[in-house]
Specification:
- The chain has 8 helices and 8 strands.
- It is globular, with a radius of gyration of 16 Å.
- The chain has one domain: Aldolase class I (TIM Barrel), CATH 3.20.20.
- It has helices spanning 16-25, 46-59, 73-81, 98-110, 156-169, 187-193, 202-205, 210-218, and strands at 3-7, 30-36, 64-69, 87-91, 114-119, 137-141, 175-179, 197-200.
- It is 37% helix and 20% strand.
């Protein structure tokens, strides 16, 4: 079953409550929280996403899918864990070594939070294999992280296929999430490749009827 995680990165100021509740009514599966620190990626959304995330917890029952695009993972986990998200995903590239990766996996699990690890387009998918049995999700970035509204990098479709083949061959239970440039045109190939959670922001938020797009993405 394919699920949709709606990125709230480009929600119109002043329309936050209306948008979040409309997305809940439209049956998005998650709200995708893009946390950027202005260091690991160019853009800085940290404070805004922390505010949004806290606000969503107060007004909505939707699970939060927190994507940390930050250098200081320790601090970010501590800031966002209190909001009780469904999952927190950190970047493999922000970790110094494998010991650090396992430290974050353990800490998140101890705090009753699912664990995701994200990889940038230039990172080899094989670099994440050793961690897969211990996590819940791998997020394959299908654009360079840090900006909304980019065009999907088509060679990432093969990356999804490689990961899907690997987890099936090794009997690993794992969600494959894809993020970047996902719309009704690009989604089918990613789903066929093995992705089962689609992150989409622009395509959904620009639509007159969120539910129509969300339903189509899930098909």
């Amino acid at each position: 079953m394919v699920e949709v995680s709606t990125s709230i990165l480009n929600v119109k100021p002043g329309k936050e409550a209306e948008t979040f509740l409309k997305l809940e009514k439209s049956k998005t599966d998650y709200l995708h929280i893009d946390v950027m620190d202005g260091k690991f990626v160019e853009k800085d959304t940290y404070k805004k996403m922390l505010e949004y995330s806290s606000y969503i917890k107060r007004i909505s029952n939707l699970p939060q899918d927190v994507h940390l695009m930050v250098e200081n993972i320790d601090e970010a986990i501590d800031d966002f864990i209190s909001i009780e998200p469904n999952i927190i995903t950190f970047h493999l590239e922000a970790c110094k070594n494998e010991e650090e990766v396992f430290k974050y996996i353990k800490y998140l699990k101890e705090n009753n939070c699912k664990v995701g690890i994200a990889v940038k387009p230039n990172t080899k998918i094989e670099d994440i294999y050793e961690f897969l049995p211990y996590i819940h999700m791998c997020l394959i970035m299908t654009v360079e992280p840090g900006k909304g509204g980019q065009t999907l990098l088509t060679d990432m479709i093969d990356k999804v296929k490689i990961l899907k083949n690997y987890i099936e061959k090794n009997h690993i239970e794992l969600d494959i999430e894809v993020d970047g440039g996902i719309n009704l045109k690009t989604a089918p190939e990613l789903k066929n490749a093995g992705a089962n959670i689609l992150v989409s922001g622009t395509a959904i938020l620009m639509a007159n009827d969120y539910k129509v797009i969300i339903d189509e993405l899930k098909k």
